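agent: user wants the structure for Xanthine dehydrogenase from Macrostomum lignano. delegating to structure tool.
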Amino acid sequence: MAAASSTLVFYVNQNKIVEPNPDPEETLISYLRRKLLLTGTKLACGEGGCGACTVMLSRYLRPVTSGCQPRIENLAINACLAPLCSVHGAAVTTIEGIGGGGGGSGKAAHPIQERLAVCHGSQCGFCTPGMVMTAYALLRNHPQPTERQIDDSLQGNLCRCTGYRPILQGLRTFASGCCGQGRNCCRQGRPAATDSVNEEDGLSTQLTDTASFLPYDPSQEPIFPSELQLEADKFDSESLIFQSAFATWHRPTSLEELLKLKQDHPDAKIINGNTEVGVEVKSKKSTHGCLIYASHVDELRKFDVDETGIDIGAAVTLTELADRFKELITDDKLAEHKKRGLRAYVEMLHWFSGQQIRNVASHFGSESAAHELGAVLTFASLKGGIRQVAIDANFFVGYRCTSARPDEALLSIRLPFCGRREFQFGFKQARRREDDIAIVNAGMLVRFSDGDFDLVESATVCFGGVAPVTRVATGAAEALIGRRWSEGRRLVEAVAARLDAEFPLSTASPCAPPSSSAFYIGSVPNFAAAEGSHGKVGEVDDGSGAERLPLRPSWGSLLFERTPPGQLEKDPVGRPVPHASGTGQASGSAQFLDDLPPSLGEVFVYPVFSRHAAARLVSIDASAALALDPGVLGVLDRRDVPGNNEYGIDLSDDRIFADAEVRFHGETVAAVVATDRELARRASHLVRVEYADIRKPIVTISDAIREGSYFPEKLCRWLRRGGAMWIVLWLSERRTWWREKSALEDSCLVVPRDGGEFEVLSSTQNLSSTQSIVAGALGLPRNRVVARIKRIGGGFGGKEYRSIGTAAVAAVAAYRFGRPARCLQGWVNKEGLVVGLKADCYLNAGYSADISCSVCEYIILRMANCYNLGAVDIRCRLCRTNTPSNTAFRGFGAPQAMIGIETIMSRLASASGLTDRAIRELNFFRNGDVSIYGHAYEDRCWEECLALADYEARKAEVDRFNSSQSYRKRGLHITPLCYGIGFGRSFLQQAGALVNVYLDGSVLITHGGVEMGQGLHTKLLQVAARVLDLPIERLYISETATDKVPNTVSSAASMTTDLNAPAVMSACQQIRDRLLPYMHSEPKAGWDSWVNAAYMDGVSLSAAGFYHGAGIHMDAATMQGRPYNYYTFGAACSEVEIDLLTGDHVTRRSDIVMDLGASLNPAVDIGQIEGAFVQGMGLYTLEEQRFSPAGELLTKGPAPTRFPDSATSRKSSTCSCCAAACANSPGPCTPPRAWGSRPSVWPPPSSWRSGTLWRQPGGSTRAKTAMLAGPGSGSMHRATSERIRLGCADDIAVRHAKCSVLPENAVPWELKLGH
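agent: tool returned. relaying tokens verbatim.
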């Protein structure tokens, strides 16, 4: 055997890379960004859950199985999980390698980059490179993909801004059969609610003209490096060994070598795609001293088919497995009954993770083979030889532990074909349909009697998610034997009864919560119905549950007001101008904070977090961390803060480092400072913290009320008017914003400067508060601290204040070491008219007040929505809990307030006998009515939405559908919106701007707002271009910085454009006024000549603009005043279909009407509406905070949090997202109420995607359902698949309710906020 090589050879963007002895623990993305400075590939979640890190990996594959041909394989992979050592002999392509379009690369933009940018598919832009590279890998394999292939390829990519519609629109121009010809495109013929629009009416339906798109020519793509193809045998046959101080990497190329390694290193991890180990390292802080990469052992890559089954090598990837199965399914030579099991496998593989994970994952990592019915595993070891193990009830011996021996390696899996009398089916239920961990998964294999395909002869039923191990349901299988499949419901009930007895579930179990019972028992009728629907065996009732709800391709139509006749072509105001940074973001050249080159002497700061939620802090022992390596410079704690350790808004109760007490799980106790990012992370795990007086934490609102744990009354709000008559207790668990929680990008860099100055670059929406708090922490005046940022990767309100603590920690490190530091109810009369409301609202504020006082205030102000409530008595109290501090996020309390009043309206409709529509129209404000806080009101958009949605006709159709279906129900719901725009405080209604004109005529603009994807820079450029009468290309916005525009207000509350546009306009007008004399004297000279003439005369070409919105006032004691400049009005109508067996739901159609006035940029505004709509759907139908009883947040990162993915968007099938301007709206440059989109407006109405589920007409008696519980049960604002299923009033749900009751002194596994 030849000696193993220790040199890594691969290509990146056609450039050869030779790396001697690379670090076995380094990931590909770390190397790309750190060593090669290719920062277009973004690092976000670090666990393969968001797709921002996607790159393309290309390999030359030698045939292993007979009949296969050599080929070049192009795969989209997660660079955050891919070990650097795994790319030996491969070619990596990053976003920089496919095209330019920005950053001075000189390359033309790739057609994918161009189309995403022009179709407005990039907002904040942080996820865009990953989207581009996923699509690029698809086109390299399928130059003319189908729409289904495009949709499926994005399973592993998340976007928090766009709502996916513009991304899919841009990518679908590559689909086979698409002509890509703008208004005449063949895909414009789909039915739409706006088909009757006549553009002569001043309305338009097209945001993008695709006629000028560059054609896609696959022949122009870079070729695979010839060295890697010609010397493929050498690269593939070469054994590798790489070593570091902490780990060793082996890549064997023969079975003998693999087994020898396993014998010598029985604890070694065998990996293929690192999709499991990589997540463990990041999330569980696991370490592995020895890694064996076995993908190049030929015996593990085989795929052999014979008459009775298939032998699959253990290193065959899941993507390859699915592709080979699909080939067999379409093979006419294979008997039809043998394809039954293959179809089930293909279906289940589709729902397993995202495309990037499936492209590299195999059976090695997660032992997924253990779930395959009838499979036989072949293991091998040097001592024991070959051993075959059947997957049965004895295979799993514990959680993630099998009966495999330490010195064994899995060689292959034998999958038998279904026999002629056998049927196989798989089932998976998750909170998010695609790319999510299952609540329950199951498999069933049924054999029927020879000659009687209705009589069950034998059966095997297995379940995952009901115990720490896969369970074989022997009792359920026995209940099937000897029964006729056509018994339908009776058969289902018999099996369900056995399952209920066989798998008693406990709320205290992490692997078998009682809610699982609703799904595993519910899977039985799903099995039965699915087989029956194909006419193979039996039938169940009306067959309405025969198939899972389909994910249809989404399509959308848009309607917005065109620019008025006569507007100059060069005037960009009111036009759908693409995002100013769209091309740069799509090319990867647009820099985010963490993309900046490392500063000289830069150190890395890694926090040490508390492991308890309520305890006394005794001591911090950093000796082990400091002894790890000389590169560990120190460990900081509260004693190292030179200024104030406490900070806050209404209360100074936030702390940079924990002091005498820790108040929530994850509070920063200390911070390790090291010269290397990975070294800082590793050292942080060695810091030992001693605690005492560990107490049971207060986690939920119920806990806080029971313990009397509240913030001071001065932070609470109380509004009284008249005499309210009925009390409803409403519990609101407000969203948490915390580390790894919501936005994809979160970073901070603090650089010490000459003269004791500090420069803070922070991913924040609030630069001035960051400047202030950092200055306070360092004991410096504010003029010594400059905070700046160019763009941030999403914000949504969550980066308004919670990001400041990270900046303060980094600042303390920079101060301490002198080096740049990077830190990683209502009452109703009989006619249905509401005459009074009394409500007690409780908010979970977390451990600190943050800006919860303001949220409390806004909840009261927005409680009425569009309704005249008469007498009101609304009190809002803040609960103090041992959880991370909650903050502003997605509507600033408005979604919770509006969902509360809409729940009340729906219940009043039931009580009064009126329809949902009638009860709302009866209680609407009328023009001239006064709001609960004394502000006059107007009425808009309701009638337009009713007409657009064809509400009455569709409601009748929904009623007909529900009367004919047992297991599926539909609901139609229309919801109004009245959303006040403003901070509610006069001093916050201000903004500044600085405009500089240079002698070449170019214009540089600086303002006080932060660009986070909402199109702020784009809109301000449009305003400035109009005032200066210049083409928009001559204007530029660089960054936001406190030394250019001081005392900025937070970029939040949907006010950023409203405040900064007048300031920019003011500065531009000053410049123009100074140039007017030159324009009049030489009207034909042109801008450049006027500028130079003014300069020669000593006229200033720099101007500072300022704006203050007057008239805003609010009395916090009485809650009366004028908190808003104006209102944004809208209405949304959504039709939802649910599966009663699983809780799955799809939104069949949504019609949205929103009054934007005269929009500055319809493309940006509509994108904001769509993005917030889909984000709101995630908030109410997917995401759910879960804590351990010890106070640890369990839902961290995109995977457990379950952000909406592109499939969620496809489920929404948004038909019309219409930004229709209503009458009497002001013009686009007429202050004070015309400055563009309302990015926080649409989370409230998007919540009614779940609201449509609340009132469903009953179906048959057997399947009649009460649907979702209302606020009385505490679940009024969550409609996850789990809650929908458990809200169905059937025997299964009743049994669940019984087993959910905890025995005395028992501790639940998890606490769901909102329960």
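agent: one observation worth passing along. DSSP finds 37 helices and 52 strands in the chain.
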